[in-house]
Amino acid sequence: YTFKLGVEPTKETLSFDSIIFSYGVRYKDYNAYMARTFLVDPTSEQEQIYKTLVKVHQLVIKKLRPGAILGDIYEDAQAMVKKEAPNLLDNFTNNCGWALGLVFRNKNFVIKGSNRQEVMSGMTFTVRTGFDNITLKEKHGPKKITTFSCLIADVVAVLRDETEEITKYDREFRDVIYQIAESDDDDEDESSEDDKGQKENKSKDDEVFVVGANKIKRSLRSSHRTAAQIEMEKKNASLEKVIEEHQKKLMKKKAAEAIKNEDGHVEQDEKEEKVIDIVRKYPSTSKYPHGLKRNQVYCDPERECVFLPIFGYHVPFHISVIKSVSKSDEEHYTVLRLNLFYPTGNVGYARDTPKEMRAVLEKYKGFNYVKEMSFRSRDAHNLNHQMRLIKELQKRVKQRQKKEEIEAGLVEQEDLILNRTGRKPTLLDISMRPSIRKGKCVGRLSAHVNGFRFRTNRGEVFDLLYSNIKHFFFQPCEKELIVLIHFHLHNPMLIGRTKTRDVQFYAEVVEGSTALDSSSKRGMYDPDEIDEEHRERQLRKKLNQAFKSFCNQVLQVVENNSMTIGQGNEYDIPYRALGFNGVPNKEMVLLQPTVYCLVNLTETPFFVVSMDEVEHIHFERTDFRVSKTFDMVFIMKTHLLPDCEDIPKRVQSIPVDKFDTIKEWIHEKGDVTFTKGTTPLNWKMVMIGVREELEAGIFWKNMDQDGEPKPIGWHFLSAEDEQEEEDPSADEGSQYEESSAESEESEDYSMDEISDESEGFEPSESDGDDWDALHAEAAKSDKQKMRKEVEREAREGTKSPQRKRRKRR
After folding, report:
1. Which residues form a coiled coil (predicted)?
2. 585-725 maps to which CATH number?
3. What 3-state DSSP class applies to 327?
């Protein structure tokens, strides 16, 4: 190989020894150049030579500073070669590079000993160092070469305070070597006895595939790992062990605290249970409306009841009893059909059953209920009129109930104290989400004595108190289209017709979409396009500074007025470096951890999980041999309340490579337990079982009500997968069927034999005790089987069928 530039490549086949790769590029009349040396099965001598070259190369880059003399830089490089490997001084290149730009090689700025030119800021250099035609002590490679050359070249830019490397391809020794296996015998001869002992102790995870001339064989990655890599792997293994031990201690700690509280329930504020009374609209028949006519349907919108004629008597039905109403024509008659709510199986009632009807169904469980009623008449006028009134009444009642549900949980705010004396922090021309009205809301946000006031350009006003803000987020515009301030609230607020716990104020840096019509077509290098990008960068920087300054001023106002906002009177910034993609709702978004939360603030609906509200985290589909993604389920503390019907929050399709990062992040929180399993669960059924065990006081214990052992707390989520691996169900089923068949064949014979031998036999009291013990043992076995079936159905996502305990004689 020759280091001379412009040499044409030959048709000679490459051999597995040392390969020097160099190439140059010209783009818009500007030049660039890079070179690397790749070593195949290098000897220890080649390793030392290459490492020396890397040190010299880095020294030259370091010395390229404004004001340095090119000749002095070359002499410093020679001095290092003389110090590290004196025998290589004669093989060192006669220069260490040159300046380049519009000219590939500027002869006036060559880094050589005789050049006294000075380096200036803004110059670009090719740093090119190498050793040429070194005579090796032992032959190397398939061709048994005796000479060796190595070369490294990079393009660097000399800035005012530093030197920036433009070509960033790795050049360390570990990054340019390749292990090629020729035969098993050669590897065995080269490895020492100590290496063999170490290889036996290595796990399969430490093995990599190495390409040979005619085959593929395994080689240990550890043979080429640096001390830093080995230390990092030990650190990761140690951290995994620390996380596992911490989770065990944390689960035991939670169990001890729950048992200490006697019932194991989550601590909650004592609130009076709201009991829904049975609806009674008419205390007596004398209060019936006067418009009733014999054998006619009548709707009373004032009392929200419908009178139905049954055997000549008017019977009032509250509108909450009626599920739907329809009308059909049959020959000469018009038929009015009313479908009513009724109990359905084990569930109790349909999901859309009104709360008034639920109270009736729960109080009178053993009663028979009417499913539907039909009335027909030759005159359709009254039926048409009453059907219209019933539907209007249903619509009005549903709207009222929806409004009550929205307003439930709302807390009345105090009045905002305006700052009328001093200067108040203000953000101009920002938008609000959710919007106060239809369409986009643009206005100004000001910080006052005890809260914020947002005033739109049309004059609408929205006030938000500091005391209602649980989390205060500031997200700068980094790889996003908006810069924002986000507030997660303690108590929900009603904004327009939306009940929400999240309020956001943002400003757009660029439009989310651009019209690509014919009039806006511009070239790739259009100066206007470049100017627009520059303006966008300036606007991005300006908005980030404005929002950050506003946040700091708000904290100062809060401190001066002795108020509180967020966590510890600080704003939180999402860590984009720790972010990962997932699907919390219907689309893939970037989820970013903060100090106290896991959030996605850019897309709507917002996703904010406060970690102090999380009871447990479960990872699903963690069999990474068959899946490249996994799911993350957040079980909140409110999900453990007896009257809670919500299911845990699920984040789907998280990439596998983020699993360890997420575990470390949870571990740093210190007080959140997590488990993992290979199958997705039916969380509605799982949480029903958890609440039942909490009410029974056995969830945090290692024994069930019958004294049988069970996993403590949330360990059952991972114990199910371990049980499946240890105890395959297919084998059990075949053995059970075979044994049952054999018992049926021998049943007649055994019973006859027992009856003959038992004549004249009188059972004793001890035999009765044995039968009682057997009966108790059989009942306990049935309960265990039922428990396993419920857990299996929860994993498979099926509803548990109604079970009846078998009676034993």
Report:
1. 225-256
2. 2.30.29.30
3. strand
Domain extents for the chain? 18-178, 184-220, 289-407, 416-511+538-573, 585-725
Question: Structurally, what CATH architecture does the domain formed by 289-407 represent?
Answer: Roll (2.30)
Structure tokens at 786: 């039922």
Residue with tokens 């507030």: 487
User: Given pLDDT bands bounded at 50, 70 and 90, which one contains residue 796?
Assistant: low
Contacts for 195-204 with beta carbons within 8 Å, 24 or more apart?
A: 195/223, 198/222
Pairing of strands 461-465, 469-475: unpaired
pLDDT at 767 over 80: no
CA distances from 257 to 133, 253, 680, 713, 728 (A): 74, 6, 29, 12, 36
Residue closest to 374 by CA, chosen among 420, 409, 413, 328: 328
Give the tokens for residue 631. 């799911």
**Architecture of the 18-178 domain:** Alpha-Beta Complex (3.90)
Considering the four listed CATH numbers 3.40.50.720, 2.30.29.150, 2.40.110.20, 3.40.1580.10, the one that applies to the domain covering 416-511+538-573 is 2.30.29.150
pLDDT of amino acid 786: 65
d(CA 448, CA 553): 11
Q: 805: helix, coil or strand?
A: coil
- Contact by Cβ (8 Å): 752, 776: no
pTM reported for the whole predicted model: 0.58
Under the banding of pLDDT at 50, 70 and 90, the label for residue 568 is confident
34 - beta bridge partners?
23
199 against 3, higher pLDDT = 3
pLDDT in tens, 26-51: 888 888 989 988 888 888 888 888 89
Phi, psi of 669 (to 5 degrees): -65, -35
